[in-house]
Structure formats: C-alpha cells, structure tokens
Amino acid sequence: MSDTLVLFLPTHDVPWRWLRIADNVVAARGEGFPTLPAESEDSHVAVVPADAVTLHWAELPDRSLAQSVTAARMLAADASATPIGELHVAVGREGTNLERPIGVVATTQMQAWLAELAANGIDPELVLPAPMLLPRPDSGYLRADLGGEGVVRGPTSGFADEARLTELITGGAAPEVMPREALEAAIVAAVATPSLDLRQGAFARRTSIGVDWGLIRRLGWLSVAIFAVTLLITLVQVLIYSSAADELERRADLLARTGISRGEAVSDADRQLTARIERLRGGGMGFSRTAAAVFGAIRATPGTEVRTLSFDPAGAMRVTVGVQNEGQILQLQRSLDAAGFDATPMGQFQSSSGRLSGDIMVKPR
C-alpha cells in the first residue's frame, strides 16, 4: 500500500513543511521540501494557506456538480469585490450536511501554486484549504497549528487565526485548541475523504489513460464470436425461408394442376392455368365483366339500346348502340369510364328514323 505525502505550501515567512501518512497514521514529518525517491509511488496532497482561500457554506442544487458550481459562482460574485472571471470556485460536501463548503481563490494564485509544485516534480491528487483539515465542530470553534500557520474552524467557517479577526468572528469566544493526536487523526481522515478539493474544473488533475491490451484482445475475440453467431443465425434463417418458399411453390403447383384441363400434359402448371383462365374468361377483363359494364351504362342512360356486340381475344368489345342524341353518347362514355374502361366512338354516328346509331369500342383501361 502506497504512502501519502502531505505538503504544506510555503508563505512569505513560513517554509515548506510536510508529513507522511502510512497505515492511516502520521509516520513522519519535517520542514523544508522533502527528498522524493526516484521510483516513489506515493500519492501527493497539497495544503494551501488559509488566508489565500475564502470559504463559504451554502445549500446548493444537488443534481449535478455543474449546477452546484454555477450556483456557487453566483454566490461568490455577490460576496466578492473581485470580478468572478478572475476567481476559481470549487464545491465540496461534508457528510450529510445540507450546507456545502465553497472554496474561492484567485485563478492566478491557483496557477502559481500548481506551477510551484510542478517545478518541484509534484502533481498533487488533491489541493486542500488548510482549515478543511480540521473536523467540523457541532458548535463553537476549533483551533490548530498547521505547517506553522494557525487556523480556526467553525461549523460553517474556516479562516486563518488572526487575533482581531478571530475575536470578531467568534464573538470573543476562545476557540478550543486541538491536541496533537486529535489533529493528526483529523488530517488522516481529511486526506482519506476530503470534503473540499480545489482541483476542479479547469484545474482538475489530468489522468493518463492506460491501454489494456489483454482486454482489447478479449473484446476482439468476443466481437468475432458475436459476428460468427450472427452470420450463422442469418444463414439458418435463409435456409428456413428457402425451404418454406420451396414448399409453398410445390403446393401452388399441385393446386394449379387441379385447374388444368383433364388429359392436358403438364409442363408449366402456372402458365397453363393462366392460359386456361384467359380462354374461359376472355382477354382484358373478360367478356362477362366487360359486358356487365356495357349493359350497366345502357341501363343508366335512358333512351339508349344495344343492337350488336362482339368481343375479341384481346379483350376489346365492339358495341353497336342506338341513342336519341349526341349527349347520350357522352353519357355512355362517362359511365364506362367510371367502370374502368375506355369507350371510344368508331366513326360518325348515323341518323335514321329520328335516332342515332353507331359503334363504340370498349377496352379495359
């Protein structure tokens, strides 16, 4: 199990300080920048000075981190004289408390801290404000010395310990000083489950993506297996459909044979059955339907009569009709057109005994 190196960033009058956590206890501590082993797998946590970070607490939307940060930025803009575009705002959570901690720090200051750490070969997993290392008291205030800096923590406050400021905020009540053992236990707990990490948004730590070639190979073989199974299913379905189509075609052929003339040799049952139907029914729409349409048009046109009709193999019917006037010829054409036929007069109609007679060619449309 790797250790955790906690680095307290220096200020103008306080140097680097550090402590090392191993097996959930503070195993070592020191002043100045520590020597980093070349092959060290330690995780790194940076603690920034309390006077450089402004802490607020507020109830925020809990649907997503983006919504929480947006609401926090609005609160920070109202509470700060610095333009919000120059501030970095981070949102955390303390257990099940409704009020969530908000850290506000100048963007340039955050950049300077990370640049200083990078210059010393450190890319910290966490950047914690110093007051957030202290536990949240149920009431009153706690005080502790962190890296040579005094910090005070209340239920919804955290700040650097300055005599006049502290008295003003606490109302003159003296904060309870944390003993060393309790402070170290609190630091271990805060590093293990941080309630407010400033490495968010634009300052979030970039993680390298490792390629698991073994997993990729397994996924490749799985893809091949899925493709093979899918192809096999498709082939089986094609065989099933082909067999079913052959069976339907066989049954249709047997059925068609029953409609062929008795004694006729069968070579193509479908074609022979179609030919017999055409012989029985006639071409086009057949004699019966064509004649029915003609007589229907005659009945619908008073004063008209059919004198002769003839039906050819192509499905056209030549009808000789007698009418009283030319308007009835047009009415006959319209009736036949509505029945799905084209009716075309064959030449001029002749007048005899006060009536007109002539031929109309009726064909399926």
UniProtKB/TrEMBL annotation:
- The UniProt record lists the keyword Transmembrane: yes
The GspL cytoplasmic actin-ATPase-like domain extends over: 45-156
Q: Which key words tag this protein in UniProt?
A: Membrane, Transmembrane, Transmembrane helix
One family from Pfam that matches here is T2SSL
Question: What transmembrane ranges does the database entry give?
Answer: 219-241
* InterPro entries for this protein: ATPase_NBD, GspL_cyto_dom, T2SS_protein-GspL
The protein's name in its UniProt record: GspL cytoplasmic actin-ATPase-like domain-containing protein
Q: Which organism is it from?
A: Sphingomonas psychrolutea
Give the organism's phylogenetic lineage.
Bacteria, Pseudomonadati, Pseudomonadota, Alphaproteobacteria, Sphingomonadales
